Amino acid sequence: MKCLDEPGPLVVCGDMVDESTHRATRPGMAGAGKAQERARRVLAPVARRLWRFRLEGFENIPAEGPAILCPNHVSFLDSAFTMLLAGRNVSFVGKAEYMDDWKTRKLFPMLGMIPIDRSGGSKSEGALLAAEAVLCRGELFGIFPEGTRSRDGMLYKGHTGAARLALKVGCPLVPVGIVGTREIQPPDKVMPKLFREVTFRVGRPIDVARYADRESDHMVLREITDELMFEIRDLTGQEYRNTYATKKSESIQAETASVGSSAGDDADDASRVRGSGEPVSSAK
Predict the structure, then answer these.
(1) Residue 268 to residue 219: CA distance in whole angstroms
(2) What domains sit in the chain, N to C, each tagged with a CATH number?
(3) Pairing between β-strand 197-202 and β-strand 173-179 as defined by DSSP bridges
(4) What distance in Å separates the CA atoms of residue 260 and residue 144, rounded to the nearest whole number?
(5) Residue 126: pLDDT band by 50, 70, 90 thresholds?
(6) CA of 19: how far to CAs of 105, 168, 185, 245, 248, in Å?
(7) What pLDDT is recorded for position 94?
């Protein structure tokens, strides 16, 4: 694997960061640890009493070594349930706004959240380095390719950050399909509904090794990401929309940045999409 030599100090575009954010994004400190292990032992049995979980394909999650879990995103509970059910520690990126709330500033990073400034570009660099360090330690990292929750339950176009990170580190992408969490806790709802069923389907890992010598090629990143979204769609049965998800119920051909996305990520040629709107392969 191509990994960080030494976990250095956090530098984010000269911006000032508080101690909690510093620790949560510094490569040597970030990610899940003993706290998540203890929380999983205590909370997983509780969750199984409160909701019915149907688990499929969990043998596709590597028992050891690095991998990037890539679920669809329809509810706040998606990352929490993934961390409880994966069987291994999973570090997830989460919006930096959680660091502004005293209730989550220390709790979420302690449980494995890596805060990211979703304005993207250089402001997300600290989170990217932290995610890379997690993978280089041989751990699992989780990221939502859509970048934000789907407000209407549809599956939206993926950003290329996960593909870029997988190529950089040399680890597989694992598609994960989640069905039912939106019915338990839709976006903007505070209290979850109890005793509902949730289905987690884990697809076969996507090996990016065949693209190892083309990691800076945006067309390759788009190819891998489209393949990933196609696999997620098969796992969930969601309708696919070839636009980026937004905080509003409607979506646009976004120019918003996501983890590791570049300007090219947000300027894909619409002619590469079939009339049905499904992801299309483009790299040769």
Answers:
(1) 9
(2) 31-272 (3.40.1130.10)
(3) antiparallel
(4) 12
(5) confident
(6) 10, 28, 32, 31, 32
(7) 87
